[in-house]
Amino acid sequence: MATKTARFTYEEHDDESTLSKEEVSLLHAAREAAQHAYAPYSHFRVGAMLLMENGKTVSGTNQENASYPVGICAERTGLSAASSLYPGMPVKAIAVSYDNELGESDRPITPCGICRQTLAEYQQRFGAPIRLILAGRTGKIWVIPDSNALLPLSFSGDDLK
Ligand code: THU
Q1: Catalytic member of 11, 75, 104, 121
Q2: pLDDT tens digits, residue range 82-120?
Q3: What is the CATH number of the domain that holds 42?
Q4: Surface-to-core class of residue 82, CB atoms within 10 Å of its CB (0-12 exposed, 13-18 middle, 19+ buried)
């Protein structure tokens, strides 16, 4: 028997002053995007802003549905849009922020399980890490250099071979 440990390292920033200029502008754009979410049921509007390898950005927002499970998270909306607009182009980074009509937006949120699996697929597809920049409107900012860290021991296409 062997006991194994999975660990990962991420950055916690007290404010934007220690982020790169690129990260700050991506985060600001994610906050702006959140305002365009369609979230009439949860009143929790999420914005994702993706930075593509060519320097272009692509936005995603959560898109809810009266049949709740049909709704799509901002991260997956953004990844689908990026893959459609720039087929075959790696995603370098994604900033995610949110507005919460029922509460505060003062801490980072992290992608849900389905989004983590989707992120893992994109990372594997392009063989390049996707950097996550996660923050509310205010508060601390988390930077996760490799989104795969959020889904250790993940299932992938390799398992289907
Ligand atoms: N949501 C996202 O879009 N991204 C996340 O990272 C967490 C949750 C959405 C799904 C749903 O529309 C609403 O937020 C409340 O869960």
Answers
A1: 75
A2: 999 999 999 999 999 999 999 999 999 999 999 999 999
A3: 3.40.140.10
A4: buried
